[in-house]
Specification:
The structure is a homotrimer. Chain A is mainly α. Chain A is 71% helix and 0% strand. In chain A, helix 7 packs antiparallel against helix 10 (186-206). Chain A has helices spanning 8-12, 17-37, 42-65, 71-74, 76-91, 93-98, 100-124, 129-150, 164-180, 186-206. Chains in contact: A-B, A-C, B-C. The interface between A and B is large, with 41 and 45 residues.
């Protein structure tokens, strides 16, 4: 399966722009809020919004696909959407901070859209199937990791307790599986993926699903390595 | 305006190499000094000089334009200039540390040269106009952010008090505006941008212009999110 | 020498895949162990293994060469090798933690293979000779720096005491010198480089060779800058 060709029909499918524009807006909101809360100035807030929304796509396009400028800098609408998310956050900061839970819901919708979008762009960039799963997952989580690095938080992604990255991986695999076995049209596969990803993410939040550390204390002597 | 074509004359203009080589040298000095002060060895000092000088260009070329190797690794002069800045810093560390203020002046000259150079390279890489402003700004500030991340400082860029990034954005917009309305030749536009950027940066330092945090304490109940 | 053309024979040489696959496995092991010890979940451990093994190649291909997807996402074997290193680390964590010294030996073998591989890929990407040294060195050390940044350690690379990066630079220069003066076939040059790199790295560990800080206290007044 790793080397198989998808139908050109599936490979050429492009998710309508408004899905990824909407995901840029929701991820941009969460990034701008993070900057706001840390007391950054307008440059810092805009940069965090841009990185949270577009950072995953920049890593995917710049490091994995590497064949031309990403949409963030060729299609002005993406930077405008990020700017809009920044302005909305600055103007409406009090109400937005009150709806923290609603933002988790919006973010969960953006997650599925980014998974589908990232897989498709990766396929069109001629990545392998595991490469496309990686490309889709990075589209979902790369911006958040870059944001965490920039503000010097330890990336949440890695630590037990987060179910976020596994949902992203699952969404990418689900979408590719539907394309690969030609179970439905790419557009329907995209909608199903966004719906399933959203549902699982909501269940993970609601029931507090956790991943676990794999670390076991090594047997007493010799002493555990320090580092 | 966002989609308009610049005249091919403006789009093809190339700032003479010695501007960007000089900017590499001045930014390389500040990076090498940062490594020196932290007690790094020669590898660490060279890497910090290289990242501070070339990091913004690497992000611009690798992540935003993504169509071939950057000059840092195709034109040996750039690495040689970085090496020269490293050696100068190691040999002359006492006098260089005494001229901290002069370095802010030299850095302010490099700032405008990097803004013009970054905008031009972005235009030739077929970015949109907002994309070219982003590309120019990243050329100016990206290296410093990468340096801060590598040495684990919180990026100065984001925090209130810095007027640096806004001057960079302003320089890029000014330069693009002069090209767009065809106010003067690209070469004169470049010189004007470097001069204006330098003057504003000097004024910002002299009169200690500050940006501000936008964070307002949220109303008492419900409690502010912790995130 | 900086601009000279290597023979097309030397420029086209490709190190057999199993060298870089083996290096991915050994570097993947060290990355997975780092994640395991920090108590990360399976996503974090896999990501650290992937970044430690493939991060240097991603920086080289994405930021320095920038002309198409890296093998990590086009050839499924590389991600499978990383996954295997992750699984081996999880399953065999007790014995693996007992053989810390053996890992330093394996890592030193991977180092030379990565230096040769990185130089060759850089030459084929049309970098200058100093650019190829940089590309080879980044292949060796870039993944470790990315791992350190992700887990928020100060990169070991920079600090006095590490002889690692200099060995990598030396290996790249040695290999290029043998190609440039046509001293032997590229394949033999690769084997010699791997052997010499391994020997010097082992000697550096055995005799605890150290690099030193270049920082000298500046003369008393004026006070040293704080930044």
């Amino acid at each position: 399966m790793l080397q198989v060709e998808l139908s050109s029909h599936a490979r050429e499918f492009v998710l309508p722009d408004y899905f990824s524009l909407a995901a840029y807006f929701t991820f941009g909101l969460t990034g701008a809020l993070a900057g706001l809360r840390r007391g950054y100035d307008v440059v810092g807030i805009f940069v965090l919004a841009m990185i949270t929304a577009g950072g995953g796509g920049l890593i995917r396009d710049g490091l994995l696909i590497s064949s031309g400028p990403p949409v963030l800098v060729t299609d002005p609408r993406y930077l405008i959407v990020v700017l809009a998310a920044t302005v909305v956050t600055l103007v409406l900061q009090s109400p937005i901070q009150r709806i923290g839970k609603a933002i988790a819901v919006i973010d969960a919708l953006g997650l599925g859209a980014f998974a589908v979008h990232g897989v498709q762009v990766s396929l069109q960039g001629h990545l392998s199937l595991p490469g496309a799963v990686l490309g889709g997952t990075i589209t979902c989580v790369g911006g958040g990791v870059m944001r965490d690095i920039l503000v010097r938080d330890e990336p949440l992604l890695f630590k037990p307790g987060q179910f976020y990255a596994l949902v992203a991986v699952g969404g990418c695999v689900l979408y590719l599986a539907m394309l690969h076995w030609d179970l439905t049209s790419p557009y329907n596969a995209a909608l199903i993926t966004i719906g399933v990803t959203f549902a699982i993410r909501m269940l993970a939040i609601r029931f507090n699903w956790r991943t676990t550390s794999f670390y076991r204390e090594p047997p007493a002597p010799p002493p555990p390595p320090s580092g």
